[in-house]
Specification:
heterodimer; A: 134 residues; mainly alpha; B: 200 residues; mainly beta; Immunoglobulin-like; 5-stranded antiparallel sheet; 4-stranded antiparallel sheet; 1 helix; 10% helix; globular
Chain lengths: 134, 200
């Protein structure tokens, strides 16, 4: 009986130590964290390994995708009017940041409709090709 | 007593594995910084004081706000970010913030964590709550292959960002964005500064 009581006490102590240790783990630095993805969900690792043999067409594929997803902000009077995407010249000038931020799911931002899978693939393919005017 | 010891042994790995997952683990240094001339972008320029409460700048319809990376040529597309900086510290393009960075060992295929310290130039106070993220690329068609790194504010104005993976040797650009949720203009808290990082 005494042996059983000692055992129970030991279990209680052990449980206390575990809880204390876990509490110390979670509150040790008081830091806060955030994901870099603006979507709040997992961002696919789908960067094209190389430019496809037939790059998407700016006129046929890319301009409509940009117009739908980007120009609500990236146009004169928009929230991001310092980085216009309203024509080919501006889209080309912003090709680097566009690739980085679309790939990292930073753009479109969290409060905007997300890119469709089709538009994401078209844009990434086109940008990896160097944003040709085709 | 034996069980208590056992519990400690069990609890310790839980702690250490959490630390292993944390981007703050690992020794950081400035070894990956690329030596070069110091930036003079903010030399002699007034310190820009921003109000963190003013995140979005109202626009006049039909007129964009002034790009914060310098004046573009008339009629030229406005897009360029300011020059990438050498070394391991510098000011953002609007001269609002001062940023110092270090990293864990940089090598192709390794998970690299950046540790940055950001302060406001107006009063040298920690730039807290700025939720920075790192835009990382070798050139215009080659970003870092892995998708977003995690940002942790370890103490006010001190952040770790990682893991970041590099897949090619060269001088990469790592552009830290602060308050990226805000409009990119001089008067907004949004700021960015880019540094070269050498990948051997």
């Amino acid at each position: 009986m005494r042996r059983a009581t000692a055992f129970a006490r030991a279990v209680a102590v052990a449980a206390g130590v575990v809880f204390a240790a876990l509490a110390a783990c979670t509150s040790s630095d008081g830091s806060s964290s955030s994901s870099s993805s603006s979507s709040g969900s997992l961002c696919p690792e789908d960067l094209p390994a190389a430019c496809p043999a037939t790059p998407p067409s700016y006129a046929k594929d890319i301009a409509p995708a940009i117009q739908q997803a980007c120009t609500p902000c990236h146009a004169p009077g928009g929230q991001e009017s310092s980085r216009l995407l309203t024509d080919y010249a501006n889209a080309f000038a912003n090709r680097g940041p566009a690739l980085n931020q679309i790939h990292a799911c930073r753009m479109p931002p969290r409060d905007a409709p997300p890119l469709s899978a089709e538009h994401r693939k078209l844009l990434l393919d086109w940008l990896v090709c160097g944003a040709p005017n085709n | 007593m034996g069980l208590s010891t056992c519990a400690l042994v069990l609890a310790a790995p839980a702690c250490s594995s959490s630390k292993t997952d944390s981007p703050s683990s690992g020794t950081t240094s400035t070894a990956a910084a690329v030596a070069g001339p110091a930036s003079t972008l903010c030399s002699g320029k007034p310190v820009v004081v921003v109000n963190p409460a003013v995140c979005h700048v109202e626009e006049d319809a039909g007129h964009g706000h002034e790009p914060d990376a310098g004046e573009p040529d008339a009629g030229a597309p406005a897009s360029e970010y300011p020059d990438t900086l050498y070394g391991s510290e510098g000011d953002d393009d609007d001269c609002k913030y001062h940023v110092k960075w270090q990293s864990t060992a940089v090598a192709i295929g390794s998970d690299v964590t950046f540790a940055i310290v950001a302060t406001t130039r107006s009063d040298n106070a920690p730039l807290a709550g700025a939720t920075p993220y790192a835009e990382i690329f070798l050139d215009e068609t080659h970003p870092a292959p892995n998708t977003p790194a995690k940002t942790v504010e370890t103490s006010p104005g001190n952040y770790t960002i990682g893991p970041v993976r590099f897949d090619k040797a060269g001088n990469w650009t790592v552009r830290f964005h602060f308050h990226d949720e805000c409009t990119d203009s001089e008067e907004s808290p949004h700021g960015h500064v880019a540094f070269f990082v050498k990948v051997p």
